[in-house]
Every structure is written in structure tokens, then in C-alpha cells.
Amino acid sequence: MQTVLITGGSRGIGEAMVRIFSEKGWRAAFTYLNSEEKALALSRDTGALALRCDAKSEADTAAMAEQTLKALGHLDALICNAGIAYTGLIQDMAVSQWDELFAVNVRGPFLATRAFLPGMISRRSGSILYISSMWGQVGASCEAAYSACKAALIGFGKALAKEAGPSGVRVNCLCPGVIQTDMLREYSNEDLRALADDTPLLRLGTPEDVARAAYFLSSPEAAFITGQTLGVNGGFVI
User: Which residues sit opposite 7 in a β-bridge?
Assistant: First the structure.
């Protein structure tokens, strides 16, 4: 049976991924930090293993990896989805906010990758997927730090694909566009309509749109795909 770990899996895109992998018959585990009630409910619904983990913590990640491998036996796919956002002028951003953003969004995927990659290499099989953003591809005004984090993931993924490829491990990135999640809670209905109008497919994306792409890239159907960056943005960035 195929196995997957999804970081940041208790809500939004992460929750959608947990659900689709579980529905497809994979044994799944996922991490959460603050959304314990939602995580436990999702675990009951899907049978997926819920693990509390602060993505930026080396100790938490090591403990989570140990629990994951104990429960699943091995890991076929790692999806690094846990992340936070920041919107604002760069001159108004505190150094502590910058550090926190990079700690969660870049250090976190590094720690998870370092924890699970050796097992994949020893089995000469595995898939690693980083959830980046279309802003990591082109940048966004008032989201310079967030864009930098997501661009770092793309660079990390491309380099690791070259490094781990000879060992049978695939590495790719997904770049969602404007997706209907909690990250849009500060946008007005007028703003959301404008974003939809700016999208060639004339709608906002759903977590399920991203989850389906993540499932494909992590599955054996994508066995010859590595080092790639796939946009799931309705044509917002082309």
C-alpha cells in the first residue's frame, strides 16, 4: 500500500490532499499545529494519522518522522504544505516576522526533507512535493517576503531533483494561484470578484483543484516527472 505524509494537513489545501489520498487507498499521515479539533475530526473521517508538529522545530520534526515511520513503515510520498503568509510593505515588516516566515516556509520543508529522504534513497523510490505559489514564480507587490520564500522552494526543489534523481527519488513543486482558503479571509467580496475576473478561467481555485494535481505528481502515474514546477492557477500566471 502506498503511503504519504502531508505537512499542514488539517485544513484548506492540506485537508483536501489528506482526503483525496485516503479516498485513493493510500495510508496517510498529516501534521497540524494549532487546529487540533479539525485535525482530529479529519483523522476520524479518513483514518489518516494526525500528528502535532511545529514545522520549524528540528525536535518536533524528528519526533514526527519517527512516529510516521513507526505507523506507516515507510514513506512513498512527502508533501510539504505547511506554511504561513505575510501581506504588507517590506519596510513595515519586522525582522522577527521575516525570520518566522522563512522558518516555517523554507526551514520547515528542509527539516522534513532531511528526515525522510534517507529512507527514500535506501528504497530507491519516493516522491517529494513542495507547495510553492504562483508568487514564487513571478512575485507579488506587498508580498515580497512571501514571494521570496516560495521562490526559494522552487530553487530547492529543482536542485534536489538533480541531487536525488540518481537514487530514484522525484522532486517537484506545485504553484497554486488564488485558492479559496483561510488565506483569503481578509479579502472583500469585491476583491475576490476582481481576482476571479483576472483569471482566464473566470473563477477562483478550490483546494480540491490543488489536491488533484498533488495526487497526480505524487503517484506512480508521474513516474518520469521530476524537477518540474506546475502552476494550478486557472491561467492567472502564464
Answer: 80
Placement of cell 508568487 in the chain: 135
C-alpha cell at 143: 508580498
**pLDDT tens, position by position, 110-156:** 999 999 999 999 999 999 999 999 999 999 999 999 999 999 999 99
Taking only the tens place, the pLDDT of each residue in 204-216 is: 999 999 999 999 9
**CATH fold label, 3-230:** Rossmann fold (3.40.50)
Query: Quick check: is 146 catalytic?
Result: yes
The tens digit of pLDDT for each residue in 26-47 reads: 999 999 999 999 999 999 999 9
Q: What is the pTM of this model?
A: 0.97
3-class SS of residue 167: helix
Q: Of the residues 32, 86, 130, 146, which is catalytic? A: 146
**Structural domain spans, the chain:** 3-230
Check if the beta carbon of residue 30 is closer than 8 Å to that of residue 39.
Answer: yes
- The Cα 34–Cα 57 span in angstroms is 14
Residue 206: other Cβ atoms inside 10 A: 14
CA dist 232 and 209 (Å) reads: 7
Q: Look up residue 25 and give its DSSP letter.
A: T
**Among positive and negative, which fits the CA dihedral 219, 23, 133, 32?**
negative
